[in-house]
Sequence to fold (613 residues):
Amino acid sequence: MKRDFMRQRVLLIFVGLVFAALVARLFHIQIVDGSYKQAASNNTLRYEVLYPPRGEVFDRNGEYIIQSKEAYDLMVVPRDVIKGFDTVLLCRIVDVPLPRMRSQLERAAAYSGRRPSVVVPQLSKETKLLLDELRLPGFYTVYRTVRSYPRKIAGNLLGFVGEVDGRDLARDDYYRSGDYIGRTGIEQAYEHYLRGEKGVKINMVDVGGVVQGAWQNGRLDTQAVAGRSLTASIDAGLQAFTEELLAGKVGAVVAIEPSTGEILVMASGPSYDPDEMVGRDRGTNYARLANDNRRPMFNRAVQSHQPPGSTFKVLNALIGLQEGVLKPNYKYECYGGYNSGRVHVGCHDHFSPVDLNQAIMTSCNTYFCHVLRNIMDEPEHGGSASRGGYDHWAEHVRTFGLGRKLDSDFTGEQSGNIYGSDYYNKTYRGSWNSLTVISLAIGQGEILSSPLQMANFASTIANRGHYFIPHVIKSIEGAEMDQKFYEPHHTDVSPEHFEAVIEGMWMAANTEAGTVFGRGYVPGLDICGKTGTAENPHGQDHSVFMGFAPRNDPRIAVYVYIENGGFGASTAVPIGSLVIEKYLTGATTRPDRVDYVKARKINYPNYDNRPAI
Fold:
C-alpha cells in the first residue's frame, strides 16, 4: 500500500510540473511576447525567397565571359490583390501591354491564390523603386540577377538560362515555379554549382498584403549563398577570333590543349549573341533563332556528326603499323585511284609510287585502300573482314575515342558511329568483305564523328598515343574538378608508331608538295596537319583540316569542319592554321589569309533552299 501511494504522488507531481510548464508558456506567448499577438492580428506571414547571385564565369586568362547584373522580378499573391487597383498605371510602369498583364494575373491565380508567382521578370532597379513607392497590395519585388556577356561570343558554348517547367519541378525540389535554370551549354552542365543556395526572409503582412516588418526581427531569416564562379578553359580572345573567321559559314572549330584536354576554342557557325537570350525579348529571339534554316542554336562542335574524310587516313596508318601489315617504307603505286575488280576509288594527281610519309603528305587514296584491306584481311584475324578482321579494326578505332561519347563535361555530346560487323552481316546477308567497306579507308562510308571527337583524335596523335577527356571548365571555386579529367586514356597503338605518321603530317604542312602547305604553312611553328575533303551528296564537298603544333611538345590541336567548303585546303586549312598561329604567337602575320577566309563565299543548297524548321 505504501509503495502504491508513493507512485501516485510521483505521478501527480509529474503531471503538475507539465501543467505548470504549459501555463507558463501560454502566459509568455499571450502576455509577455507581443509578436504572436501582433502576428495573429495582422493575419499572415509572407516567406520571401532570397535568390542568390548566379555564379560568374571567367576564361582561362581571368577575363569575364559571363557576368551577373542586378534585376528584379515583380511578384503577386493573388488573394492579397485588391479589386479595382490601377492596372493601367502598373502596366505603364513595368512596360507591359494590358492584355498580357491580365493574362499573367489570371495564370498566377490559377496556379495558387496564396503562393507568390512571377508577373513580370527582369525589371530594372529604377522600375523596382517606382513600384516600391506605389505599394500595391499583393504585389512586391524580389531581387534576382540576369546574365550579361561582355564579349558577345560563344553562345552555344556558354548556353542560356530559362524558366523551369514541370519536369524540372518534379526532378529537383530546389526549384519553385518562376525559378530559372541552365538550359544549354555551361549553364546547364554546371547548374548545380552556378545556382547557389536560396535564402528566406519572413515578413509580417497585414490583411491588405502590405509588409509591416520583419518577423522576429529577422532572427529566423536565412541569407542566400552566391553560386560558385567557374574558370573556363577557353581563351576568349581566340574564341572571338575564330568566330570572326567562321562568320557566314556553316561548320565548327574545336581546339584542345593536348597535355591537359582543356578546350581552348569551341566555335560553331552560325552562332548567336548570348545577350539575345536575356531579357523580355528572349521569347521573340528564341523563336527567330529556332526557325533559322542554318540552325544557329545547334552546336555543331558536339552535336553534329559527319564523315571525317581523309583526316581519318592517319588512323588507318596507325592501325596498320600496330598490326605489322604496314611499314613506313612500304610503297604503292597510284595512277588515278585504287582498282580491284569492279571497285574503283578515285584519287587526285600526284607523283607515284609513294611511301607512308608521302601518302599522308599528298593524301593518296590508293595507298590507304591497300592499308585497310591488309588490316581487315589479316590471316591472324580470320583472313577476311567478315570473319573478324573488321571487328578487330573497329576495336582499334574505338580506343581513340571514336564511335562513342567521350564523357566530356559538355551537354549534347553525340557518340558518332563506328558500326560492329553485325550491321554489315545484316545489311549484306553475310556476303561481304573488305572491298565492301573500302570507303572506310578514306574516312567515308558509315564512319561518323563530331568535331570534338576529331579534335581529341588530333590531341591523341600529338601526345603519341594518349588523350585526356576534353573539358570546358578548368576549375570551380571552392570545389574539386572530377578526377576523370586528369587520367590519361591510352590507345592500343604503341607510342613508337606515331612518329612515322607525325612525320607525314609535318611534311604535309611544311613541304611544297604537301596538301596543307599552300594556305597553311607558317614559318617556325612546325605545324603538323592533314587535310580532308568529305563527300557531300547535297552540294559541294565539306572542307576539313586536322592539325597540331608545334611538332614537339605540342600546345594546341585543332579540327576544322566547314560544310560545303570544298577541298580541305580551300577553307578549313587557312582557318586552322590561323587559329594555331594566333594562339602560339598572339598575332597573325598573314592578313591576306584572314581577308581571304572572311571573304570566302559558300553556297549552302541544303540549308538555303529548304523551308524553315
Remarks:
- Residues 36-42 have pLDDT under 50 and may be disordered.
- The first helix runs from residue 2 to 32.
- Residues 203 and 214 are 4 Å apart (CA to CA).
- The domain at 46-56+70-145+158-232 is CATH 3.90.1310.10 (Penicillin-binding protein 2a (Domain 2)).
